[in-house]
Amino acid sequence: MAEVLSYKIKEKYFDYAFMGETMKIAITADVHLRSRQETPERYTALENIFIQCEKKGLEQVFILGDLFDRDFNNYHDFDELCRMRSGLKITVLPGNHDSGLKRKYFTAENLRVIEEPLLEAPAGGRAQKNNFLFIPYDSGLSLDEALEVFTRNQDPGRFVLFGHGDWLSGARSANAYEQGFYMPLSQRAVEKFSPLRVFLGHIHQVDGGLDRAVIYPGSPCGLEINETGKRRFLVYDPEENRVELREVVTPVIYFQEKLLVLPVGDEISRLRELIRKMIEKWQVADQDIKKVKLRLQVRGFTRDKEALARFIQQEISGRGLTFYDETEADFSELKITTDESEARLLLLKQLQEKLQQMDLSRFWASSDEVLEEAAEIIFGR
User: Fold this and answer.
1) Beta carbons of 81 and 43 less than 8 angstroms apart
2) Domain CATH code at residue 104
3) Helix, strand or coil, per DSSP, at residue 254
């Protein structure tokens, strides 16, 4: 086997201790920092990860690209944050927004930047170790090509891959923050090189589990309304090859929701129940509800738009939620019906009850989408 390369500095800050939780590694990505003044919520989220690591005895934090935002090159605030958390050993892998990032841009001694592909053998632990292969973002290569080039010169052995780019196989969450593909990794390459695990930065919104071939930690703080839900970071145990999810405590939590209004029975009572279920689905603690910024679209048919709009405003604000948009809820797809025909109302109600008993999991359409189409046919003009 070719000689294994490892990054060294004289204090050996980046040796991996295998005792208790210290053997585990926190993984995040896509923080997109600017100055603290410009992006205070992103610093708060990252600092929360650091604080959780300190409390749990985790010493290593890997940040897999796009630590900084596009066209930004004042790193002072992050540098100071690292200096304040001197007990942590922070590894930054540059992404497409901070490619060209170098160690010499920082003063914090507990921080390193992976400037070129690096194969590293963690110290201690089992006799059969899994090497870490770091590949920083390179606009001229795919991850497939970078792996080909690297393995042409040395054998990585059993390795875990850390990179930044698009996973081209399987389910893929779109990155609304930027279009196109960046340093892609294919299924073919994963099968050929057989990494034990693959962790990538680049995709911000993550809704997948931990059983996928490629795992994205996601952004620790939603950057805009499309990055919805509670945020997470990963904790990786290299000795057990096990990944855990941990929640990031963030100052803001985004949600986008749609409510389907139907002129069946008591509209307001039905809508109150829909809002209750919507909030329950989020699984946000009561004390964090005030952090929610909600984009809400109201669709369907109503007899009284004025009363319905007033109720929604009162119900949302009464629960401590805040609308994301200045116009509050979006009623552009809500239609008015003046048809009081008992037969039409009965037909829609029967369809609604029937759909509640059906398993629609094998279809592309949800029950709400079916109901909306049905209401369009029944009440539409």
Assistant:
1) yes
2) 3.60.21.10
3) strand
| Number of C-beta neighbours around residue 195 at 10 A | 22
Same domain, 174 and 107: yes
- Flag whether 272 is in a domain: yes
Residue at token pair 């929701």:
257
Nearest alpha-carbon partner for 232 in 52, 68, 16: 52
**Token pair of 105, please?**
């841009």
Strand partners of residue 131: 159
Cα atoms found within 13 Å of the Cα of residue 105, Cβ hemisphere only: 18
E strand or H helix at 111, and its extent? strand 111-113
Residue 346 lies in a domain: yes
The boundaries of the domain holding residue 275 are: 253-379
Inter-residue contact 260 to 368 (CB < 8 Å): yes
35: which 2 tokens?
């100055």
Tens digits of residue pLDDT in 90-140: 999 999 999 999 999 999 999 999 999 999 986 554 445 689 999 999 999
The predicted pLDDT at position 380 comes to 61
Backbone φ and ψ for 95, nearest 5 degrees, come out as -115, -165
Position 11 in a domain: no
Statement to judge: residues 80 and 191 lie in one domain: yes
Q: Residue 129 and residue 94: Cα distance in Å, rounded?
A: 25
